[in-house]
Design goal:
This protein has 183 residues and is α+β, with helices and mostly antiparallel strands. It has helices spanning 17-20, 32-49, 53-71, 170-178, and strands at residues 5-7, 13-15, 85-91, 98-102, 107-111, 128-140, 146-150, 157-158, 166-167. The strands form 3 sheets. A 5-stranded antiparallel β-sheet has the order 8-7-6-3-9, covered by helices on one side. A two-stranded antiparallel ribbon has the order 1-2. It has a two-stranded antiparallel ribbon with strand order 4-5. The longest helix has 19 residues, at 53-71.
Length: 183
């Protein structure tokens, strides 16, 4: 956005004719009414932000810092968003079971939350399958390695596992489980 105003030698805000052209000379870029409308439009846009000039300057500084970090490769770019569906290839032993308090029989039972869509006839901790789940967050270990939390799976999932054991599409996970190269 062009700077429509500047401060004169007395510190008063005036129209910045150097960027807009002079409305009174032969190189007229705008007339006074145009300048008024442009100034009102810019003031309206500024007021819509609800920010003070100090807050805008702070955001500019943060943006410069962000762009520098991005250029230096220092930003973490997650392979998916929190809440996205992901497909994880892992053993059944890594599934967080639901615990059911069965007070009538005096025993509690555990139940697999993925039981409704499991193709295995016999449940076994060693079964390797694809689990459709949700990304619930990311964290960085002390050594700098980024990890991912997913719902209902208790497994150490690194960001580097994307394309190997964690996928954004079921088709890619199925191809990897079958040993294909559709990653």
């Amino acid at each position: 956005m062009e700077q429509l105003t500047k401060l004169n030698k007395d510190g008063e805000a005036i129209i910045n004719f150097e960027t807009l052209g002079t409305p009174f000379g032969k190189d007229t870029a705008y007339d006074v009414i145009d300048l008024y409308h442009i100034a009102c439009k810019n003031l309206y846009e500024y007021e819509k932000t609800g920010l003070t000039s100090e807050e805008i300057e702070q955001l500019k500084a943060e943006n410069v810092a962000y762009e520098k970090a991005e250029a230096e490769g220092l930003l973490f770019k997650p392979p998916c968003k929190v809440g996205d569906t992901v497909y994880v290839i892992t053993n059944c032993e890594n599934v967080v079971m639901d615990y059911d308090d069965d007070y009538e029989n005096g025993t509690g039972a555990t139940e697999c939350p993925f039981e409704y869509n499991c193709n295995f006839e016999e449940c076994d901790d060693g079964n390797l399958r694809i689990f459709e789940t949700t990304c619930s967050g990311f964290w960085q270990e002390d050594c700098g390695v980024w990890k991912m939390f997913v719902d209902r799976i208790n497994s150490d999932i690194g960001i580097s596992d994307f394309g190997k054991t964690v996928f954004l599409t079921k088709e890619s996970a199925e191809a990897a489980l079958k040993g294909g190269d559709d990653k």
